[in-house]
Amino acid sequence: MHKVFAPFQVIEGDRSSGLVLLCDHARNSLPEEYGSLGLPASQFERHIAYDIGAEALTLGLAQRLGVPAVLSCFSRLLIDPNRGEDDPTIIMRLSDGTVVPGNHPISVEEIERRKALYYAPYHNAVTTVIDEALETGVNPIIFSIHSFTPVWKGSSRKWHASMLWDADHRLSKFIVDGLSQDSELIVGDNEPYDGALTNDTMYRHATRRGLAHGLLEVRQDLVADAQGVQQWIDRLAPLLEEANHRHDMHEIRQFGSRTDGTAHTGANP
Questions:
Q1: What does 212-238 look like in DSSP terms, one character per residue?
Q2: pLDDT, tens digit, for every residue of 62-116?
Q3: Domain extents for the chain?
Q4: What's the predicted TM-score (pTM) here?
Q5: Is the CATH code 3.40.630.40 the one for domain 8-250?
Q6: What is the Cα Rg of the chain in Å?
Q7: Which residues in the chain come in under a pLDDT of 50?
Q8: Hey, which bits of the chain come out as E strands?
Q9: How far is CA 241 from CA 107, 138, 217, in A?
Q10: Could you tell me if 119 and 79 are in contact, meaning their C-beta atoms sit under 8 angstroms apart?
């Protein structure tokens, strides 16, 4: 008999605080029935399985700030919660040069099963926490925490951190400007990826609601141990607190997404 696998974790915090944290790729875990998807254990220590350091950073910030957080508990190799439901990369058959035997071939029925058992419960939990925050009368900022590999396809990445965004630049610009005050940091703006990803977590839970939001990427070697995580908590917590005290960050503003062709209808970010 398989152990019950929880697809998400909710960290309790003040729903009226004005801030909700998300972590889409927190863990490299799989339900027992999937074994290792045919991969050696070493592959689950790589970025293809989860965002190294992101869980610890999310938990640390939630504790420091006293705010709620929702984290996924399954590896992105099982199914990627930061993808739209019709995205062909929602289940990766090949990831950074590694073939995932348990995902190739895969039936439509199995894809739908993973959506129902893991993907949907995570997103339902995010929806619930945001709904509960809205019920307090405060429009929350949504801050999503990720990390990126220092080397991609043989090329080193110079950025220490970056903020990703689609059309609403309110929070991302604030965080980028704040981190850039440290002359030793190289801070990206929509680097090394573009934040316009069709029906991703930010679009689903923040853009469509008109909530201020941003997706943080920290380079994984900088949050690979407790000391590094603590340094980033110390950098980010004051910025998030300051952003949370700004009235404009809690205004509902409808912005069109660059991925769906909707026209921009909000105030200039």
A1: -EEEEEEEGGGSSSHHHHHHHHHHHHH
A2: 999 999 999 999 999 999 999 999 999 999 999 988 999 999 999 999 999 999 9
A3: 8-250
A4: 0.95
A5: yes
A6: 18
A7: 262-269
A8: 8-11, 19-23, 69-72, 94-95, 98-99, 141-148, 151-152, 155-156, 161-164, 187-189, 213-219
A9: 46, 15, 19
A10: yes
